[in-house]
């Protein structure tokens, strides 16, 4: 594995994540995924490199390919970064990359060999570079050619953003950590929960995924969102809320605070209850680190956002005033903290599925590919 600081005076194939959200007018609404890779790009330019950028954009199909072309948004990317970047779609001829030049390959998912991790496609890209750098931790749980294929042919390095994410997440789950896991589906979080229970001090569950456990224990969950599966984990290291906010639906403002054993048949669990929230705060205040992924209620709807927003405020408070390290991740979690006026978290991960996969397995295909790269 190569140190990115030592990559100088060469052609670099740089995997980034420019899969940015775009509105109906074709305008990028959030540039954070672009901003996070600028330190690596600027470092490579400072070191006299030429750069071939690789990224996917959306989920293109043959029918809607044009919608996900980088040609549609490259002007906005250049304006935001202050860099001169041109898009190319053909790699059959050698790219004559000059020092300081940046080229962005058209959406890698336009090429069949990307998702299939075709070695010929990976080799085709690799011949346009001398070193491969991955600065897209968020896609490194996928075994695609631009993630795991190219390192077979080039010396490889972790980009600056990738390296920080790896280091932060690698040290997140310890015996002093309290993990808060929320969300709607326990089936997608169960491997994560089981893995964390072996490593951390306590796991707190919230959101609709709790409903499966309640029903599996014989409790009535009314009309609550609930997956059709059985799961009853009973361990002292696992905290399950014991009271909830219930209502007839997300549009019904006539809500009640209800004990877990007394959920009405015609109502839904939509948020954590006040007594459970107090108990949760007590557990969190004794943590050395806090790892949070997923909302603990229907945070998109008033007043059922209260539990998630109060959790965010409390973790932010502990980070700022109690010297407790906090690491948060997940798209819904990041959306939930936007309500905070001055959020204070030690590290905010934007890696989504890769965040979860890393906590489950302790590594990712993209990490292993770099470690085993051709040197």
UniProtKB/TrEMBL annotation:
In terms of superkingdom, the source organism counts as: Bacteria
EC number(s) from the headed UniProt entry: 2.7.2.3
- Molecular functions per Gene Ontology: ADP binding; ATP binding; phosphoglycerate kinase activity
Q: Which SUPFAM superfamilies match?
A: Phosphoglycerate kinase
| Keywords (A to Z) from UniProt | ATP-binding, Kinase, Nucleotide-binding, Transferase
Where on this chain does ATP bind? Answer: 189, 300, 330-333
What is this protein identified as?
Phosphoglycerate kinase
Q: Which organism is it from?
A: Ehrlichia sennetsu (strain ATCC VR-367 / Miyayama) (Neorickettsia sennetsu)
